[in-house]
Amino acid sequence: MPPTAVDPGAVSRWAAALRASALVGTSRRAAGVLPSGLAPADHASLLDQAALLDVLGRAGARPMAGEPVDPAPANRLPEAPAAAVQLLTLLIRQSPLTAGARDAQVDRWIERCAAAGCGLPADLLPEVAALARQRRSMRAALARVWDARGRWYAEMFAPYLLLDAPDDADEVAPPDPHAAVRAAVAASWEHATAKERVRLLEAMLAGLSIADEPFLEEVLDDRAKTVRALAARLLTQLPDSRLAQRMGRRLTPLIRVTKRLLRDPLLAVDPPTSIDDAAARDGLDKDGGNGQPVAWLRAIIAGAPLSTWTEATGLPPEKIVKQLAGDQTVTTALLSVVGLRRDTVWAAALTASSGRGDLVHLLPPEQQTRWMIDTLRSAPANPLPFLRAAREAPQPWPTALATAVADRIARSADGDPFLLGFDERLQSGFGPEVAAHLDRLNPPEDHARARRILAIVRQNTAFARSIDDAFPPRRNP
């Protein structure tokens, strides 16, 4: 049968009538008459005609010329054992665990897979890549198991995975890996607005190094106050910068040292009474106001090298922070700058002096564990410092810590702030080594929250044990 000619004008009128009917409903306006003359006017016909219109629109499009795609290369690593693949498939597609526990177990699976010298199954690459899209910490680990097909997939469909993946070709790190970022910022700087310059500086934060200091030093003379302030904050993160040295010279005369016979000197810190134009250029607000000297002191402490304190007093960090423990302004400022500089010696001194958990994650693993166990046993009324430190600690926790935490859960009544703050992240901190101890814990019937948390923890540890058992023993490095 020869094809039937269709009037283009009739098709256009029919399409317009169809859209109008879909907008207001077939009860108010009929779907219209097909160019062929078939025109049942019920709602089913509306959907049929809409489908036909979609087909006509697609049929009229010309296909684009495509470029041939290189086929995925063959993997070099042996695929993970079948039992392990089944567990990963269950985690991704129908996880029996909470979202946080699932992520922790996926991380464990990847770590065990890499340790066994195995690769990720190719058919799970898209789903694993989707998980890694929102989890930057997962990407570098994933690169250890994705193998040749995984890298091919990332280059084709998931380039975000490559941002944190090591490049096999780059055996030696470039001397200035931030140079490209700095060059891009400098190229856009002259014609950028103040808001745009702030965003450009924010882009420099990740990977900031002393190589960025000359550019940031020039930005201290920018015409916009917000830009100058941000440049000063960035420079305070570089203890070897010229700004840091200037802040150190401002801090030294503020540290009052009173010498005593046969005893350590007494220490006190006096806020500055005024600042000059040079200090204002370095980010201190010169405008007066109540509390301004304290704000100046905080800014000076934040910018000065930590070595300023030991050089000015002749004392080690633990004695300095002990003497200044009563000065909350100084202690709070030191907690902030030590956290930013990630200085382990000062972190240990401040943690011991303040009892706070802000810097516990900077301590060596053994000291972290000891601090958290001691804090648990002291049964503080405020468990937040412990919970904060436990969230930052690497997982799974050491057996001694995990056992102490499980015991604390088991004896906690409903409404205990410790249980109220024990979230998904913390529920994933237990390794399979404590499974037997968990099974022996039996909180009272009226401790419903503790019983529920322990049930979740038991499920997580059982899954972790299954992952461990699914892989062959770890390879020797």
Explained architecture:
By secondary structure, the protein is mostly helical. The protein folds into five domains: 8-56, no CATH class; 82-164; 179-238, no CATH class; 248-362, no CATH class; 364-477, no CATH class. The chain has helices at residues 8-24, 43-59, 82-93, 99-115, 125-133, 136-142, 147-157, 179-189, 194-203, 213-219, 225-236, 242-251, 277-281, 292-303, 307-313, 317-323, 328-341, 344-354, 365-377, 384-392, 399-410, 417-420, 424-427, 435-440, 448-470; strands spanning 255-260, 263-269. Strands 1-2 form a two-stranded antiparallel sheet. The longest helix has 23 residues, at 448-470. The radius of gyration is 32 Å and the shape is extended.
Strand percentage:
under 5%
Unreliable runs: 168-173
| Coarse structural class | mainly alpha
Topology order in helix (H) and strand (E) letters: HHHHHHHHHHHHEEHHHHHHHHHHHHH
Q: Can you list the strand order of the major beta sheet? A: 1-2
Terminal CA distance reads: 74 Å
- Major sheet attributes: 2 strands, antiparallel
**Number of helical segments?**
25
The number of strands is 2
User: Helix proportion of residues, in percent?
Assistant: 55-70%
Shape: extended
Average pLDDT reading: 87
